[in-house]
Automatic annotation (TrEMBL), chain B:
This is Photosynthetic protein synthase I. It comes from the Bacteria. It comes from Pseudomonas lutea. Belongs to the SCO1/2 family. Keywords: Copper, Disulfide bond, Metal-binding. Gene3D superfamilies: Glutaredoxin. It holds the Pfam family SCO1-SenC. Disulfide bonds join C78-C82.
Length: 165, 202
């Protein structure tokens, strides 16, 4: 059992969780929406879709309307939910971004689906994503994000890893 | 009883007596006390499957006798729960050290129309080179899912579809008795502890 615990602590220690801060496109004004730690799951050859993940914080009540990317023919926002160990998946029209609240697009909930990929996404590739966000006044802004591709074998953050915000 | 004797003979014949020397490997399926997972020892489910691996070989549960198979249903275009479960499985195997060598992770696709053997092979090997992926016809897939009580369905998504499915990992002992159901919410360490309980029995 000691070996087990040691292995766990090693794994924890090796996981330095880098947080990338990407300011949104701000036109003179303060950035309304912040995107942190964007990443895309790398694919194997022939795999036609993948997921993109990030954390989004808007400073006013906003909505994530859509996402586009040159790497995929169709980009959708999906929501995953788990009930009694049954994983349910489906597209959503938009993601609410309540003021000041960080909304996680992670493997536990909402995520961006890159469907109809134009090619394999390899670990380390930078995947451009453009997020369209509408604020409480009805104004839309486009946030351009570059999301690095991580190995498909990446453990998502929740299991075994303490996530620090 | 006859079935029990046959199993003993098969195991002996395969030269896997070493595993039988562990306390309690007597072929019984009495309930086990797991700390985190669900005991499935007495469930009439998951007794059999017949599918094809990525090399085109037909595989059944007995193909993995002597190992501790851990079966997970999913599809390669699954963005979240499948890679998470498979990455967790790879981590469990590492955590178990030498004992992890008996853990045989088996990924059964619920999307055989899109998951070709080539894609499945590349997909599963990126988690661990010892993991295997199995697929069958649509009928085979429906049959094996029913056998395991696994739910799956296509969900329309634009011009294509995504899928909903059960995300439990099913663990058999080295005799091929279904023993344990592991929820996707459990950590690798929690899973590894329960797998050691399975190994103590058989």
């Amino acid at each position: 059992m000691n070996a087990l615990l040691n292995a766990v602590s090693r794994s924890l220690a090796s996981r330095a969780c880098g947080v990338v801060l990407l300011a949104g496109v701000s036109l003179g004004a303060v950035a309304q929406t912040r995107v942190e730690d964007p990443w895309v799951r790398a694919t194997v050859a022939g795999q036609p879709s993948s997921g993109a993940f990030m954390r989004i914080t808007a400073d006013t009540d906003s909505t994530l309307l859509s996402v586009t990317s040159p790497v995929a023919k169709d980009v959708q926002i999906h929501e995953m939910s788990m009930t009694n160990d049954v994983m349910r998946m489906g597209p959503v029209d938009a993601v609410p971004l309540p003021a000041g609240k960080t909304v996680a697009l992670d493997p536990e909930g909402y995520h961006v689906m890159l469907m109809g990929l134009n090619g394999q996404i390899k670990e380390g590739d930078q995947v451009p994503l453009a997020l369209t966000v509408k604020n409480a006044k009805g104004e839309t802004e486009v946030l351009n994000v570059s999301a690095p591709a991580r190995s498909a074998a990446t453990m998502d953050m929740q299991h075994d890893h303490e996530m620090t915000h | 009883m006859n079935e029990f004797l046959t199993r003993r003979q098969v195991v002996a014949g395969m030269g896997l007596l070493g595993l039988g020397l562990l306390a309690g490997c007597d072929g019984s399926t009495t309930a086990l006390d797991f700390k985190y997972g669900k005991d499935l020892s007495n469930k009439i489910m998951g007794r059999t499957f017949k599918l094809t691996d990525t090399d085109g070989e037909v595989r059944t549960l007995s193909s993995y006798r002597g190992l501790m198979p851990m079966v997970f249903f999913g599809f390669t275009q699954c963005p979240a729960v499948c890679p998470t479960a498979l990455a967790r499985a790879a981590q469990i195997k590492k955590l178990m050290g030498e004992d992890g060598k008996t853990l045989q992770v088996i990924f059964i696709t619920v999307d055989p129309e899109r998951d070709t053997p080539q894609i499945l092979d590349a997909y599963i090997k990126q988690f661990d080179p010892t993991f295997v992926a199995l697929r069958g016809s649509l009928e085979d897939t429906a049959h094996v899912a029913k056998e395991f009580g696994v739910f799956y369905e296509k969900v329309p998504a634009g011009n294509t579809y995504t899928m909903s499915h059960t995300a439990t990992s099913f663990v058999f002992d080295s005799r091929g008795n279904l023993r344990l159901g592991l929820s996707p919410s459990l950590s690798a360490k929690q899973c590894a502890e329960d797998l050691l309980t399975v190994m103590e029995v058989c």
